[in-house]
Design goal:
Bound molecules: adenosine-5'-diphosphate, iron/sulfur cluster
Largest sheet: 8 strands, parallel, barrel
Length: about 700
């Protein structure tokens, strides 16, 4: 299949990639190709049925042969609130799922549903039922990380029957909704997985003890689901392998080998993964593409059924290699499918250089933890397909002949320029730096952050292919330059600046330290090398303070890291990075002080203070780097706004700030801001609305009679 690329050349699919487009039989259904969007959270519950349907259908449109839901609870005893899970608790829940299935089927893809019982890993905060567990052992991460304090009940034989019956009822509802593949979930600390692990399963009945007994619950879930829907739906098992693979088995290479051998050809599909979110959805800072392989590589040798697995695959060569080497049959994608729903189509059309590759920042996961629809750094349209009517590959025509000037070519400026250019506007982007990329130029040089450069590279490459774009580097613009350039619309994307503010015991930024050996990340970006020993004082709490400390230590300085928060880079708990930040700091000999304020610094000595007890401590350091408050660099904007007559005389119809120049944030905020700016050019204000329709207003869908109920 051929297609014109961005630079107007007819291109065809690379022959090596044809294998990726072969159909794969999965039980009674056939996936049209090997691109399989594995289950992943979307933050879109039954309350947002159209948001969810559009989000998933866009991936089907983009060529994913199978498109799955996130976790769909089978019963109120599996209630993960306040996290935004989905459910199939009763027949009323069918319609909203049917809407998504129909939308996925419209593009010829299969729809899969990840039926799920959370066991002891959920707190049932809304349903107020006692959580279920094999032996009353709480799931550690749930209790420590997410502050639950309700301990689970111990399931008796009747409870086991109940859970299986709830799975069966949900599976039947799933079939009624139109799903083609129905899951059993035995991973990530949820109920099936708790039965598999001896730490959580102390039972002395037929469901505990030997591996054969511990696997029985999962086996019965599969058998019951197959009996209920297996004639028309494929039945998939999603299972975590990391801990089982590390456990010795009497007769097999590991307990993972034993479990897979015992279940072998029972499920129609094996969906294999790691055990906890930080390893399963590893951030690129700490984990490369394909990091799952050493754990899951044996499964395909132990079963004749197809195997799907993930690994943040964005390179078609890596995907082909996974198949040719016999690791996977289907290329699983969660994050790559969020960052670029059209990844398969781009490969099929020979446009793989246009793939918007996931950067592995895990902002998508943070949005699940935030309880909102999925947000993505690379793809500003993710989650906005319905609400804002934003399609990742389709753009409305320009509403005028206005020429657009964007001052600043960081993530916000590049995204605004790209989207405005794709709409057809004549776009100019000017940046004072020698290179485009803004903050990314420095930040991608820090340990583990190289992959984030894809935010710049994807946009810059695309912009360079377009005839309606002028890119000027080494071009600092002042107010008079802007007034003289003859553009009708100006976006100020000049970023932000780190301040030397301290942090008070009232937990607000206060007056700055003025010693000449106090620096900010902007100084480091400009090439300053602080004299060691260095104290990094971080109250930004995202990645930068931790990674700056790691980088300085790597360069040979003795480094102390202090923060008022309870952990280093505390917010990275939201992006699955926190444990690895601490490991990295430890590895590089960085002393970490948490719950700490910086009191004073005289060039040789810093005084830090415990935030609760006030106990002071002196540190012999020659430099301090403060990673704290960041404020917009918006002087250009204010200078121009103070000259309304000049703006009018210059024919400038609009002057706006975007990205960090408006409000300093993470990359995801800058890209979104740039995207929104360009989408909204010449669009009437009343067309910019958020929309969703309550589920009750959805016309009755294709709900068919439940057979066998
Ligand atoms: P954002 O994340 O909002 O895109 P960045 O800080 O990454 O912000 O990028 C801002 C960019 O703006 C930087 O590349 C910087 O060089 C550029 N810039 C700042 N002031 C000017 C100016 N007056 N003229 C041209 N470019 C500018
Ligand atoms: Fe990838 Fe980051 Fe987007 Fe998640 S938010 S899909 S990790 S680019």
């Amino acid at each position: 299949m051929g297609r014109y690329s961005q630079n107007g050349h007819l291109v065809n699919m690379n022959k090596n990639y044809e294998i990726l487009f072969e159909p794969v039989k999965i039980g009674p259904v056939v996936a049209p190709n090997r691109f399989y969007q594995v289950p992943h959270a979307s933050g879109m519950t039954e309350a947002n049925p159209r948001v969810r349907a559009s989000f998933r259908a866009t991936k089907a449109e983009g060529g994913w042969g199978v498109v799955s839901t996130g976790a769909v609870s089978t019963h109120p005893s599996s209630d993960d609130s306040p996290l935004p899970f989905a459910r199939l608790w009763d027949d009323n829940d069918i319609r909203s799922h049917a809407m998504a299935c129909d939308a996925i089927h419209e593009h010829g893809s299969l729809a899969a549903v990840e039926l799920w019982h959370g066991g002891a890993a959920v707190m049932n905060r809304t349903s107020r039922m006692a959580p279920y567990s094999p032996s009353g052992i709480p799931w550690a991460a749930t209790h420590v990380g997410f502050m639950g304090h309700l301990r689970p009940r111990i399931m008796d034989a009747g409870d086991i029957r109940d859970v299986i019956n709830w799975q069966v009822a949900a599976a039947r509802r799933a079939r009624s909704a139109g799903f083609d593949i129905v899951y059993i979930y035995a991973g990530m600390g949820y109920l099936g997985y708790e039965f598999l692990l001896e730490e959580y399963n102390h039972r002395t009945d037929a469901y505990g003890g030997s591996v054969e007994n511990r696997v029985r619950f999962v086996k019965e879930l599969i058998e019951a689901t197959k009996d209920a829907v297996g004639d028309t739906c494929a039945v998939a098992l999603r299972i975590s392998m990391e801990e089982l693979r590390a456990k010795a088995s009497e007769h097999y290479a590991s307990q993972a080998h034993e479990v897979v051998s015992l279940l072998s050809d029972l499920p129609d599909l094996w969906d294999v993964k790691m055990d906890s979110s930080p390893t399963d959805c590893g951030a690129s800072r700490f984990r490369p593409e394909g990091a799952h392989e050493p754990v899951i590589d044996f499964v395909r040798q132990v079963t004749d059924k197809p195997v799907v697995g993930v690994g943040r695959f964005t390179s078609p060569d890596t995907m082909v290699s996974q198949i040719k080497r016999g690791i996977l049959d289907l290329i699983g994608g969660a994050r790559p499918s969020i960052a670029d729903p059209f990844l398969p189509k781009k490969i099929q059309q020979g446009r793989e250089d246009e793939i918007r590759e996931c950067i592995g920042c895990n902002i998508c996961i943070s949005s699940w933890h935030d309880g909102v629809p999925v947000r993505c750094t690379q793809n500003a349209t993710a989650g906005e397909e319905w609400r804002k009517n934003w399609h990742p590959e389709v753009f409305s025509k320009p509403g005028s002949d206005d020429q657009i000037l964007i001052v600043g070519g960081g993530p916000a400026g590049l995204e605004a320029g790209l989207i405005a250019a794709r709409r057809g506007y004549q776009v100019t982007i000017a940046d004072r730096a020698a290179e485009f990329g803004g903050r990314l130029i420095y930040e991608t040089s820090l340990p583990g952050l190289n992959t984030w450069g894809r935010v710049r590279d994807y946009r810059l490459y695309a912009l360079q292919q377009m005839g309606n774009v002028n890119l000027y580097n080494n071009s600092e613009l002042g107010a008079d330059d802007i007034l003289g350039l003859g553009h009708q619309r100006v976006a100020i994307a000049t970023g932000s600046a780190w301040t030397k503010s301290l942090y008070s015991s009232l937990e607000i930024p206060v007056g700055e330290l003025d010693d000449p050996s106090v620096y900010t990340p902007d100084d480091l970006a400009a090439g300053v090398k602080p004299e060691g020993p260095v104290l990094v004082f971080d109250f930004d709490n995202y990645y930068l303070g931790g990674v700056v400390a790691e980088s300085l230590a790597q360069q040979g300085s003795p480094v102390t890291y202090a923060t008022p928060a309870g952990h280093a880079s505390a917010w990275t708990i939201m992006t699955n990075e926190l444990p690895f930040v601490h490991q990295a700091l430890h590895k590089h000999g960085v002393a970490v002080h948490t719950q700490t304020l910086l009191e004073s610094f005289d060039g040789n000595q810093a005084t830090i203070k415990d935030i609760f007890t006030g106990e002071a401590q002196s540190l012999n350091v020659n430099s301090v780097v403060i990673v704290g408050l960041r404020l917009p660099t918006d002087n250009l904007y204010h200078e121009l706004m103070a000259r309304p007559d000049d703006l009018e005389a210059a024919g400038i119809k609009s002057l706006e700030r975007i990205g960090d120049a408006l409000a300093a944030g993470a990359l995801v905020h800058a890209v979104y801001s740039g995207h929104a700016y360009a989408r909204q050019l010449d669009v009437l204000q009343d067309e910019l609305y958020l929309r969703d329709i309550p589920v009750a207003e959805i016309p009755p869908g294709p709900v068919i009679a439940l057979s066998g109920d």
